[in-house]
Design a protein that fits this description.
The protein is an alpha/beta fold and 383 residues long. The chain has two domains: 125 residues, Aspartate Aminotransferase, domain 1, CATH 3.90.1150.10; 231 residues, Aspartate Aminotransferase, domain 2 (3-Layer(aba) Sandwich). Helices cover 42% and strands 17% of the residues. It is built from 15 helices and 14 strands. The strands form three sheets. The chain has a seven-stranded mixed sheet, with helices on both faces. Strands 10-11-14-13 form a four-stranded antiparallel sheet, covered by helices on one side. A three-stranded mixed sheet has the order 1-2-12. Strand 6, helix 8 and strand 7 form a beta-alpha-beta unit. Helix 5 crosses helix 10. It is globular and about 55 Å long. The N and C termini lie far apart (45 Å).
């Protein structure tokens, strides 16, 4: 193999405006960044509550480093499960209202581990078509029968569940869908799962910290409780740090601990991060003012954008997708915004369906009304 082996494939990506590129950020995570050496106002972070560079969280990480060093040294089942990990799992379980929680290094690893731990050959998975890539890959790894139902089509889900004769059934869905920003009707999905003797795994990556009383997540938002419900939440978005957790009934989480390969064979997350997240959960719990400010910014953006050709998808969350359609036009608009000092990512297939390329605008409680106004004015001028 040599460097020319992929030339045609890379050229094809260029021709379709599908090649991705990285930019170098040389400042802490915040709305105002230094990107590729120039100042930029960013609307692309999942730091929804503005905690990633919060002084209290930084101080907690520094304290964690002094107390526990940097690395955990091994997987959790060897000697990597340290005091801050144990404390964080207990805190997360109590905060989300579940019997037990288990920490993973990332949300992707959590989903890749949990789904194959719960189901395998002879079982069946029922997955929303717009689920996150980690759930899609997890379903493939599980080697169970895969049933993909149209986005939020509960009639199709019910029919598939009723027709299945699988030994064990698992419904998997995002809570807040990462590219559309819409919220799954979890009470109805859980009712279907219970009616058909199925488990429900909810990916709450974009809801934890934002939805429910004190940001306790999508399950708390809907008042859900069931021994058949498991929730995966990430700790690198609204919580401002890194990692993820799975919460559920005691026996279900213990089974995941025993069987999830991404847990068993991964080095535990740095203990300083777990220690910092104890403060991060406190900040989430005390963050009603942040959530109220974020809600006001969402309303401001939606009320200010006056569009003719482009389409702002219905979303009451921090994810505000502006569908342009064509790949090249989407990337051209993103490029023009960048030239004006506004960083909004263009999202293209296969991340989103063909013909729905979009700007994925994400708002944070760290944004100001003036910053949001600057974005909406630029978009209105450019359409």
């Amino acid at each position: 193999m040599n460097s020319s082996d992929f030339s045609d494939e890379l050229s094809a990506l260029d021709a379709q405006a599908l090649r991705r590129r990285r930019r170098v950020v040389d400042s802490p995570c915040a709305p105002e960044l230094v990107v590729d050496g120039r100042p930029m106002l960013a609307f692309c972070s999942n730091d929804y509550l503005g905690l990633a560079n919060d002084p209290a969280l930084v101080a907690a990480a520094q304290e964690g480093a002094r107390l526990y060093g940097i690395g955990s040294g091994a997987s959790p089942l060897i000697n990597g499960h340290m005091t801050p990990h144990a404390l964080l799992e207990k805190r997360l379980a109590g905060f989300t209202g579940f019997e037990r929680a288990l920490i993973f290094s990332t949300g992707y690893l959590a989903n890749l581990g949990v789904v194959p731990a719960l189901v395998g050959r002879g079982d069946a998975i029922f997955s929303d078509r717009l689920n996150h890539a980690s759930l899609i890959d997890a379903a493939r790894l599980a080697r169970a029968e895969l049933n993909v139902y149209p986005h939020l089509d509960l009639s199709a889900l019910e029919a598939a569940l009723a027709a299945s004769r699988a030994k064990r059934k698992l419904v998997v869905t995002d809570a807040v869908f990462s590219m559309d920003g819409d919220l799954a009707p979890l009470p109805e999905i859980l009712a279907l799962a219970e009616r058909h003797n199925a488990w429900l795994l909810v990916d709450d990556a974009h809801g934890f910290g934002l939805l429910g009383p004190q940001g306790r997540g999508a399950a708390a938002h809907f008042g859900l409780a069931s021994p058949r419900l498991l929730v995966m939440g990430t700790l690198g978005k609204a919580a401002g740090a890194a990692g993820a957790f799975v919460a559920g009934a005691e026996n279900a989480v213990e089974w995941v601990l025993q069987k999830a390969r991404t847990y068993i064979f991964s080095t535990a997350e740095p203990p300083l991060i777990a220690h910092a997240l104890l403060t991060g959960i406190d900040l989430i719990e005390q963050g009603d003012a942040r959530r109220q400010h974020l809600a006001a910014l969402i309303a401001q953006l939606r009320g200010s954008l006056k569009l003719k050709r482009w389409r702002l998808l219905p979303s009451e969350t921090a994810i505000q997708p502006l569908v342009i359609g064509d790949n090249a036009e989407t990337m051209a608009v993103a490029g023009k915004l960048f030239e004006r000092g506004l960083w909004v990512p263009g999202i293209r297939p296969p991340t989103v369906p063909a013909g729905t390329a979009r700007l994925r605008i994400t708002l944070s409680a760290a944004h100001s009304e003036a910053q949001v106004a600057r974005l909406t004015e630029a978009l209105t001028e450019m359409e």
